[in-house]
């Protein structure tokens, strides 16, 4: 059980995951796929679900539309720290298409996320115990309504006493000069910047993930920790004390959708329980591996981080 509460703020939507898909069907034709899973998702939703499975003291601050999908999405989030608001309109949905090489593509309809904004988020936080908490803002680029106020939300969380983290996701218009400046502005208000290997190289405009993480760390406040999720290659972090790494769990998943979100949950849950950076990275990779090993996704308990329980055969400190 974690000792610090964890507040997850961001996108909750429906996820339809199908595959494997080798080639896009030609217009006017139909392709039949072997596997399918329909579940609550979105970057923030995925992280909050895994935190609940880890037994963390955590809650999701988000929204749904007012259609039938809203009932399915809100059902898992009934805890004392969950804050889910129903908005007028259609609920957002993402279709994840798994490819034979383990990669995936997404088709998304934002729906209610267009109307999930700073005022709504701040209103839901009125009675949330933020002082001393960890707070993750996840999926910023998937939330058109919140995106303009995301820096203000991070500033609010910090002023309320929370240790902040951000996982911005992938910008729909690519890594332009404007989107890089936008994310760096968000990151300056976050202690933890959580990215995957494609995102960190795109943000830094440097092709090597380690060099990109180091460059970003040097460009941000001195206590910022830049975490890079690298799939089968594990994870690395560039922080004030140098570089830490952790190996990935050995698995061959069909569905990697939400792997980075599961990593975020394990990483934050470990930090909330008193882990150091090395142990938090290892907890993140172990949690991600456990989650994506099951298809359809399990909902049962997951083992959390415990002192002296994590081994680091491939970890290093530079």
Number of helices: 9
Please give the largest β-sheet: 9 strands, mixed
The total strand number stands at 13
Contiguous uncertain segments of 5+ residues? 310-318
Strand content: 15-25%
Based on CA inertia axes, which overall geometry fits?
globular
Tell me the CATH superfamily: Ribokinase
Termini separation: 31 Å
What is the spatial order of strands in the main beta sheet?
A: 5-4-1-8-9-10-11-12-13
Overall CATH architecture: 3-Layer(aba) Sandwich
Count of distinct structural domains: 1
What does this structure look like?
The protein has helices at 43-53, 68-74, 118-124, 150-159, 177-187, 197-204, 209-219, 259-272, 277-292, and strands at residues 6-10, 13-19, 35-41, 58-64, 83-86, 93-98, 104-109, 134-138, 163-167, 192-196, 225-229, 235-239, 242-246. With 318 residues, it is α/β, with parallel strands linked by helices. The chain has one domain (9-21, 34-292): Ribokinase (UDP-N-acetylmuramoyl-L-alanine:D-glutamate ligase), CATH 3.40.1190. It has a 9-stranded mixed sheet, sandwiched between helices. A 4-stranded mixed sheet has the order 3-2-6-7. Helix 1 packs across helix 8 (259-272), helix 6 crosses helix 7 and helix 8 (259-272) packs antiparallel against helix 9 (277-292). The two termini are 31 Å apart. Mean pLDDT is 93; it is low at 310-318.
